[in-house]
Amino acid sequence: MRFSQLVGPRTSEVVERPDPTPADHQVLVEVLACGVCTSDLSAWRDHDPSVAPMRLGHEIAGRVAAVGSEATRWNVGDLVTGLGGEGFASLAVMDSAALLPVPRDVEPAHALGEPVAVLEEALSRSPVAAGSRAAVVGLGFMGLGLVQLAKRHAPGLLVGVDPDPARRARALALGADLAFAPDEVPDEHLGTRFDVVLEATGVTPGLATAGRLVRPFGTLNVVGYHHTGDAKMDMDLWYKAVTVVNGFCPDRTRTVAAMAVALELIAQRRFSYAPLVTHRYSLDQVDDAFAAMAAAGPDFVKGVLVSP
Q: Tens of pLDDT along 171-224?
């Protein structure tokens, strides 16, 4: 097998090793697609070359190549996606209980189960309902996914907020009713504010904007990855009696359940990765994929490693 590993700051190498063998409850998956996630960006930027190489990649879809003796739900040749790691590789060993089938007639790069499951699980703990007023702050990959997922609940108003005009245009195309830059949200919306605000920026200024937009007794769901620095919370949220939801889910059972819902939406063409996967790379181009993500140009939403 071949896999990519981090050996220094912004530096990966591809190495070859013998193919792994799945344990009893595991499945060996031929990786056909693996998303490049912003949660790995800091590791790519800062990896210490004096420590052991690091393997990344957790948004996996592929074909079953071998099954353990107890992984009887799966057959060689099944197309699957699920929760796993070390997916920047030609093969990945995955827990058989954390896999689900790729929807029929959907290519693996458009059926990455983990990221859409994370969004759906977070959204399930937010009261976006018919007629409600909802806003998504941050219209990158996660925010645009949330726009699609929230739209199916028929909110009375769905607004996207992002400083990038290209991202705002994408949000409108994917179902947002209106889209504004953070400092250009009209007073008519600031006055009444939003029942639910979904924050998907992962940075403190975005969190501040989201807090400003949520109404008294409303809900703020922090879906963005605030994994570096201090994410300061505006105490005005306390005085507004806002319910703050931690959009991260540490429970695999809940995440797999949300994945099942999300994959059914993909099968029904009610959610699509097609407008989100804008860049494709080979295993040898991992560093190019991260560099494009870091640059976040106007044409970039999501990069995916795909097999030849």
A: 999 999 999 999 999 877 667 799 999 999 988 889 999 999 999 999 999 998
Element spanning 195, H or E? strand 194-199
Give the model confidence (pLDDT) of 80-110 as tens digits. Answer: 999 999 999 999 999 999 999 999 999 999 9
Distance in angstroms (rounded) separating the CA atoms of residues 107 and 273: 10
Q: Which residue has the tokens 């790069």?
A: 109
Q: Which distant-in-sequence residues (6+ apart) come within 8 Å of 263 by Cβ? A: 81, 100, 101, 102, 103, 111, 113, 116
Give me the mean pLDDT over the 3-12 stretch: 97
b/e per residue 45-79 (b: at least 16 CB within 10 A): eebeeeeeeebbbbbbbbbbbbbbeebeebeeebb
CATH 3.40.50.720 segments of the chain: 126-246
Phi-psi region of 296 (alpha: psi -120 to 50; beta: other; left: phi over 0): left
Structure token pair of residue 262: 């999300």
Backbone angle region of 269, left / alpha / beta, with phi > 0 → left and psi within -120 to 50 → alpha:
left
Domain with CATH 3.90.180.10 in the chain: 2-115+262-306
Give residue for tokens 């809900």. 219
* Residue listed under structure tokens 């949300």: 258
CATH code of the domain occupying 126-246: 3.40.50.720
Write down how long the chain is: 308
Q: Which residues does residue 304 pair with via DSSP β-bridges, in sequence order?
A: 35, 280
Which architecture characterizes domain 2-115+262-306 according to CATH? Alpha-Beta Complex (3.90)
